[in-house]
């Protein structure tokens, strides 16, 4: 401890109290160096060696400190260049200069200190001269954030989350943290995780008559949330516009490239204009346009890094099936999320008609009774020039009980939004607001007692609401052309896998 | 469905495709009305009736749409005023005018439509003429967001979350979603929830030899996260500055006013300047100052609403023990979070000396071996004029195994930040970066094999890092002078309670 201590005149109650120096960071951030370009300045930078080129008198290293995908080139004269491994962490003191005709930046080192060695022979999984497939990188969840592509993915993920939240805040939506632990398994699908304290002594201490051990802690069965929608429906009746954005869970034995046991979902709930689903469509389209535009403006260097690595991966690993997806292309991102026309809209009936009439050789035959398969979704979008499609007016038997029936039809006011790479990105609906209709439905499902609070909220000061849920990872997959959801989640969990 | 259909010239691939009107909202937001004050404008507002005053020829109602704590006064001539209940939702069309000398806004209604009645005799829990205690309101989690105080708390909570995240983004921290599901019970405290699929058929299908049913799904025991720190430590070695902000869990049988089974924790991890804990202290203090200043600037009307309700509650319910906490006072908020001097620093040893020498009648006698009790924490802060105190240099046996030992002492480089109302707000440390020291400690705890990844990350390109965790609800409690944590969480969970 090396705290500057001085007597505090104003609050000198305890003689022992000490004051603290106002710290300014000792190290320059590489992102700031590239932004402000303070030529001729002396600076200290701390980071990891990403590449090394040895010349006769000079060694060049590229270093990254994680603040940006841009690497700072460091020139080391022989006498300040010890034995350096790619991956090692170093502290470099030097003067910022330019090199070449292109006005590129270079730190001419006067001093270099190795903080942490990186001996590849001790088992470091990444060789600086090799290009690795996403599958290979994914085997090392603990080291993956150190790779060029995954650190860029993580920075884009972080920016995207901020952009979604700031956009919704500007639109007047209040963020509401809906609970992960819940006694309500929502859609009744049964694909839930159940929860109890690990400590059996605790369960014994808390035991009550007539309550099973599993239910002791909360006096009820407790599950991990599959959706925050019903809690949002309660809060929207006080706040008008609400959203939740957090971890969501499915206990499915699925190893598909689109599913995880834990994923992030963005869900909104709002009062509808004219009781119409168009309010929800409009909220989604405006959000996707503005967020994508911001990311293109602010995260260009990460997007370019992801593209470059993807292009390289395809050169080296051409036989891996997931490389059927093209590398990220900024022009295609614009065409998909920022088309000059509005996103398309078709009814479910129209979708099935198009699929039935087309000559595509589907594995699953399109059928009105069965909904859309992934191949159907992807086909519809592809044939639409990769412009997103809202599919609306769904048969009620394909959708959840709380969706609003459309008068004189057997349809409900529901939507799916289809996009490239992943197919369904959002699902939403107008909610049933008629207490009697809803009561009948809950009764039929045997949920009337358990869900009485869900019914009750419609009895007092009711309003017509609607909303949607968006898989956040699916947005990232579509934006970045990353076929496997495990490659956009920091620490993915799927059946038989919960490493770290 | 009432979608405008038109042929799409540019993407006319499917004749069935339809385009969508660019929606603009039909209803004015009350927050925007107060901001822009468009006098003389005709507008439609949708909201809930919060109060009603009947005069001879005119009925006045105050309505809220949840966008702000400010209520818009609506003047209704007798012929447009049906029987109105407080709590009902209405749609009002009218012209905006001013009234009185104070330039206050008033919507003179030409049309009023009741959307949802609110018959109090059917069981609505809040009577418009009564002031309710926080305990009473808390009994109705489903209706609570409709109350003046709780809707303001929720708006402040939403703003505060945004301010923390935007501040950290500006400081160069990358948000990293650490997993809720984890095979690592982190601090080994045993106070964890365990997780398994609810569906027993699924477990049978997935069964593998030698794996217990409980562990089948993930091939390992799975818990709910008690901290994201160790995952942050992995990612910080690629990104330099990272944070996580999300739900965190404790399976404790505690009904204290400061604990929940599910709460929100903000955790950071960063590379340290000079390997010194002062970097972490500085990050915390700068963050709390900037976030609090922003909230005072932007959320004034909600803060004033909370104060006004608290003052009223104390008039009516003076005998409830939690009203020993004073109502929210903006001047006190500034004195605590924005003092003109730096936040105080003292060592743990100094804290114990002060507590031992003072004449306060503590329930628990201060003792070097036992750490600080809540009453000790609160006393220290109170005697420090409510200015936050960093307590540093903790005995290693009181802290977790991963904290950095201070040379030639039996202390570790740890910190607790103490504030009014809640005591400990943040806890943090420098992390042990010496592989051999850490390996010995893990070995002693029997965790060396299970935590090999935690050890491994220090073998390659290692850096000295540190960070802290802050209980988000505790910040809100201290900011808003709300003694019970259940009153700052939208849907709180605690032993024997998991409603909704």
UniProtKB/TrEMBL annotation, chains A, B:
It is an enzyme of class 6 (ligase). GO terms for cellular component: mitochondrion. Residues 154-490 form the Aminoacyl-transfer RNA synthetases class-II family profile domain. Its EC number is 6.1.1.22. One of its GO terms (biological process) is asparaginyl-tRNA aminoacylation. Keywords: Aminoacyl-tRNA synthetase, ATP-binding, Ligase, Nucleotide-binding, Protein biosynthesis. PROSITE patterns: AA_TRNA_LIGASE_II. GO terms for molecular function: asparagine-tRNA ligase activity; ATP binding; nucleic acid binding. InterPro entries: Aa-tRNA-synt_II, aa-tRNA-synth_II, aa-tRNA-synth_II/BPL/LPL, Asn-tRNA-ligase, Asp/Asn-tRNA-synth_IIb, NA-bd_OB-fold, NA-bd_OB_tRNA. PANTHER family: ASPARAGINE--TRNA LIGASE, MITOCHONDRIAL-RELATED (PTHR22594:SF34), ASPARTYL/LYSYL-TRNA SYNTHETASE (PTHR22594). Belongs to the class-II aminoacyl-tRNA synthetase family. This is asparagine--tRNA ligase. It comes from Megalurothrips usitatus (bean blossom thrips).
């Amino acid at each position: 401890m090396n705290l500057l201590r001085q007597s505090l005149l104003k609050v000198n109650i305890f003689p022992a109290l000490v004051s603290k120096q106002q710290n300014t960071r000792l190290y320059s951030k590489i992102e700031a160096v590239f932004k402000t370009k303070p030529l001729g300045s002396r600076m200290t930078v701390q980071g990891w060696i990403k590449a090394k080129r040895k010349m006769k008198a000079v060694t060049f290293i590229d270093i990254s400190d994680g603040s940006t995908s841009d690497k700072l080139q460091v020139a080391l004269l022989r006498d300040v260049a010890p034995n350096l491994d790619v991956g090692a962490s170093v502290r470099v003191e030097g003067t910022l200069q330019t090199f070449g005709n292109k006005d590129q930046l270079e730190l001419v080192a006067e001093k270099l200190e190795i903080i942490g060695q990186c001996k590849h022979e001790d088992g470091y999984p990444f060789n600086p001269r090799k290009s690795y497939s996403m599958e290979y990188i994914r085997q090392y969840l603990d080291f993956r954030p150190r790779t060029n592509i995954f650190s860029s993915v993580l920075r884009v993920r972080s920016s995207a989350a901020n952009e979604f939240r700031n956009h919704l805040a500007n639109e007047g939506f209040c963020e509401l943290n809906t609970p992960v632990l819940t006694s309500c398994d929502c859609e009744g699908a049964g694909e839930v995780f159940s929860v109890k304290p690990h400590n059996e002594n605790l369960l014994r201490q808390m035991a009550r008559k007539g309550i099973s051990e599993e239910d002791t802690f909360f006096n009820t069965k407790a599950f991990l949330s599959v959706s925050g929608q019903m809690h949002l429906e309660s809060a929207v009746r006080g706040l008008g516009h609400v959203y939740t954005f957090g971890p969501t869970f499915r206990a499915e034995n699925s190893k598909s490239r689109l599913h995880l046991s834990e994923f992030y979902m963005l869900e909104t709930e709002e009062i509808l204009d004219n009781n119409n689903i168009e309010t929800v469509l409009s909220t989604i389209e405006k959000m996707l346009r503005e967020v994508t535009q911001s990311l293109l403006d602010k995260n260009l260097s990460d997007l370019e890094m992801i593209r470059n690595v993807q292009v390289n991966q395809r050169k080296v690993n051409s036989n891996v099936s997931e490389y059927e997806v093209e590398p990220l292309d900024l022009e295609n991102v614009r065409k998909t999320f920022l088309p000059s026309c509005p996103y398309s809209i078709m009814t479910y009936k129209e979708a099935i008609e198009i699929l039935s009439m087309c000559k595509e050789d589907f594995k699953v035959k399109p059928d009105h009774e069965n909904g859309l398969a992934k191949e159907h979704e992807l086909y519809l979008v592809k044939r639409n020039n990769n412009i997103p499609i809202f599919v609306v007016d769904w048969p009620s038997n394909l959708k959840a009980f709380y969706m609003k029936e459309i008068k004189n039809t057997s349809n409900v006011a529901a939507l799916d939004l289809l996009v490239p790479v992943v197919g369904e990105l959002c699902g939403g609906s107008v909610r049933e607001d008629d207490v009697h209709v809803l009561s009948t439905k809950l009764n039929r499902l045997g949920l009337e007692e358990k869900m009485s609070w869900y019914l009750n909220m419609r009895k007092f000061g009711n309003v017509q609401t609607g909303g949607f849920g968006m898989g956040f990872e699916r947005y990232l997959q579509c934006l970045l052309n990353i076929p496997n959801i495990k490659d956009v989640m920091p620490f993915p969990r799927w059946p038989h896998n919960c490493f770290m």
